[in-house]
Amino acid sequence: MSFSSAKTARSSGKPPVLTNPVRYPESASAPMRSKRAWMLLLLTLVLPGSAQLVAGNRRLGRLALRCTFAAWLLVIAAVVLALVSRETLLNLFTNPWTSLLLVVLMAAAAVGWAAVFVNTFAIIRPGLLAPGMRGVVTGALVVLMVATSGSLGYGAYLVNTGRNAISSIFGGGPDMAPVDGRYNFLVMGGDAGAGRSGRRPDSIIVVSVDAKSGQASTISIPRNLQNAQFSPGSPLWKVYPQGYNCGDNCIINFLYTDVTDNHKNLYPKAPDPGASAMMDAAGGILGLKIQGYVLVDMAGFSKLIDALGGVTIDAGGWVPISGDDPNGDGHHLPPTGWISPGVHKLDGYHALWYARSRQWVLEYSRSQRQQCIQQALLKQMDPATVLTKFNAIADAGTKVIESDIPAGQLGSFVSLALKAKGHPLTRLTIGPPDFPVEFSTYPDFAKINSRVQSLLHPAPAAPASPKPAAPAAPAAPAAPKTSDAGTSGSAAPASPVTPSAPAATTPSSAPPVTQAYLQQLAVNGDDTDLVALLANNGTCTAP
């Protein structure tokens, strides 16, 4: 039909013959209608709004396309920012206001995309499709809506979950500045119980991270260390002018409860006076400025490990899962189980026991195992693990972790944590095997400070100087070759990393060490042999 005849038809009130099958499918064949339906679905999937522009409401199409292009610009900007300044991008994601804006935008995009798909379905006019094709197209549309709008909606939910977790766990104070190029955090683990005042941190570890490279070191302070000193200017000096030095009643892990119960007024602005006191004590002991703390409820620690899907360690010795202490005097019933030497993927229950068990061993073996668990978690906390288990991790974290680290700076510390994975984690224990057993009772703080500085700022290894060639001795037989380690020109400096504990010595008359044999020794009350057999259970590596 010519243009003039079409104009005549319109003026006479008769419908024109519509030959554009995309916009007017009535005149198209059944195969053409099917192709049109799939084309419109594909356009809505790839470029929301384009289907409306070619076959529907053009005004709606232009609006949807503008939103689509704006979304792509934001995505491209995020990718560029990730390449140029990952830390800035992480700070934007962890900031409570920008993350709220992101949640709103993602939710709006999810609703808008779903609305465009519904409108596309109306444009397709499924009543014009062949009966068998109607169900296929309808099913495809539902799948595409779930894959697109559903994913965006779930993403908004995850971002909001993370936002709430960050607000619940972390503080809202000003940003921290590195001291001497490092961030130093106190990580404590203890049982919260029903009342906060009874908490005593059994695990006391300072994590020091280089602010540029992310190189991390951990320093374990034994819970039974006495005569703790405090940071310069600490209010604790007013109450304990000679340090926390009243003997067995003043081991360091009692300080948390002491300040919480009796000296809250020393830290009037602190949300947790006990944690602030422990920071001052750890800083005074190590000669460091402690800038923040993380407090982990060890009773709920197992939930966090389970949320991560377990933690893999290579245990060097047998670790008992202690039985009950019915009388409360430290005399336990025989173990309810054992963690054997070798590589294990520990669930939360067994990881908690591995980190806390101290039956038949010194306190320091437990410190070594705790450091190992931390190192293993650092290695296994890759972005894929965190993203796939994010909701469970965030939920567990809000129940077991509290911290005064500012939420606004969290992105910077996440960036440092990612850098830390590229460096070996160095370790030091203020006790065996780095110091004598009695050191915790009579600590030499000058010696501790020196070892800490050697750990954090190791002297560069001196280059090997070539040795002058010795004159040939033809009459002498050829000497056997020595290893490379024995031919270096100068000895390497003493490593601050915790060395392995000596191997356990099995009694000469004892059968091979098995779980059944160890359990029988425990039933018999043979503590002497158990102490010898478990002496190496602090040795552990993160594979």
Task: Tell me what the structure shows.
- This protein is an alpha+beta fold.
- The protein folds into three domains: 20-169, no CATH class; 179-299 and 399-457, Nucleotidyltransferase, domain 5; 310-388 and 500-543, no CATH class.
- The protein has helices at 3-11, 30-46, 50-55, 58-84, 86-94, 96-124, 131-169, 236-239, 255-262, 273-286, 298-308, 348-356, 363-380, 383-388, 390-400, 410-420, 445-456, 515-524, 527-533, and strands spanning 182-190, 201-210, 216-220, 292-297, 311-315, 319-321, 337-339, 342-346, 401-403, 426-429, 540-541.
- The relative contact order is 0.10.
- Residues 1-11 have a biased composition (Polar residues).
- The chain crosses the membrane at residues 37-56, 63-85, 97-124, 136-159.
- It holds the Pfam family LytR_cpsA_psr.
Question: How would you summarize what this structure contains?
Answer:
It comes from Arthrobacter silviterrae. The protein folds into 3 domains: 20-169, no CATH class; 179-299 and 399-457, 2-Layer Sandwich (Nucleotidyltransferase, domain 5); 310-388 and 500-543, no CATH class. 47% of the residues lie in helices and 10% in strands.
Strand content: 5-15%
Work out the number of β strands: 11
Shape: elongated
Q: Order of strands in the sheet with the most strands?
A: 9-4-1-2-3-10
> What's the end-to-end separation, in Å?
78 Å
The residue fraction in helices comes out at: 40-55%
Total domain count:
3
- Alpha carbon gyration radius: 33 Å
**Class of the largest domain in CATH?**
Alpha Beta
- Which structural category do the helix and sheet elements fall into? alpha+beta
Order of helices and strands: HHHHHHHEEEHHHEHEEEEHHHHEHEHHHE
Give the helix tally.
19
Uncertain runs are 1-12, 193-197, 470-508
Domain Cell envelope-related transcriptional attenuator: 200-381
InterPro entries: LytR/CpsA/Psr_CW_biosynth, LytR_CpsA_psr
Transmembrane segments: 37-56, 63-85, 97-124, 136-159
Biased composition (Pro residues): 460-471
